[in-house]
């Protein structure tokens, strides 16, 4: 992608029927890997108008599900399906991932980030070897180790007004 220049493709989500056509001029040479389960990438596309357009490149999951969630919450960011299990999502600036929020909270509280995972591993090294019932038991045992309210607590602490 780095070598692709001056393409005749429009920048996803940049089409304006009343304005000039913004095409892909180039791709940024670095992709930032986001620390979350699926490890999506942050992609920056330079448009023919000189502006940078940032997207989240997701794989291994259907981007149409993200589109449905955005519709549910009334959010409007461009989503371009590239294949059945990959796509580009318009970048939302100044946001944290759930993983980042939970990691930050647990670091402040001195709780190991992978606490639940360690408990589940105590059942067996490879959880895929467990039956569905055993997986549920391991999961429930892992939930008993922590309060399970890390996300709630960090969102409360980060909220602008605490009552």
Automatic annotation (TrEMBL):
PROSITE patterns reported in the protein's UniProt record: PI3_4_KINASE_1 (PS00915), PI3_4_KINASE_3 (PS50290)
GO CC annotation, single: cytoplasm
One Pfam family from the record: PI3_PI4_kinase
InterPro entries: DDR_Repair_Kinase, Kinase-like_dom_sf, PI3/4_kinase_cat_dom, PI3/4_kinase_CS
Any one biological process term the GO annotation gives: TORC1 signaling
Transmembrane spans: none
Coiled-coil boundaries: none
Annotated PI3K/PI4K catalytic domain residues: 27-163
Keywords recorded for this protein, A-Z: Kinase, Transferase
GO MF entries: protein serine/threonine kinase activity
Species assigned in the record: Gongylonema pulchrum
Descriptive protein name: PI3K/PI4K domain-containing protein
């Amino acid at each position: 992608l780095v070598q692709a220049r001056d393409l005749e493709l429009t920048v996803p989500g940049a089409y304006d029927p009343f304005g000039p056509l913004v095409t892909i001029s180039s791709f940024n040479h670095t992709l930032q890997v986001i620390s979350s389960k699926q490890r999506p990438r942050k992609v920056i596309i330079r448009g023919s108008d000189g502006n940078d357009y940032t997207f989240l490149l997701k794989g291994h999951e259907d981007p149409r599900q993200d589109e449905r969630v955005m519709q549910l919450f009334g959010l409007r960011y461009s989503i371009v399906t590239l294949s059945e299990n990959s796509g580009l999502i318009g970048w939302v600036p100044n946001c944290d991932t759930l993983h980042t929020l939970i990691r930050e909270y647990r670091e402040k509280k001195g709780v190991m980030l992978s606490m639940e995972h360690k408990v589940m591993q105590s059942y067996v090294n490879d959880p895929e070897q467990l039956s569905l019932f055993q997986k549920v038991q391991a999961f429930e045992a892992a939930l008993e180790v922590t309060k399970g309210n890390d996300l709630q607590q960090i969102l409360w602490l980060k909220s602008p007004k605490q009552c």
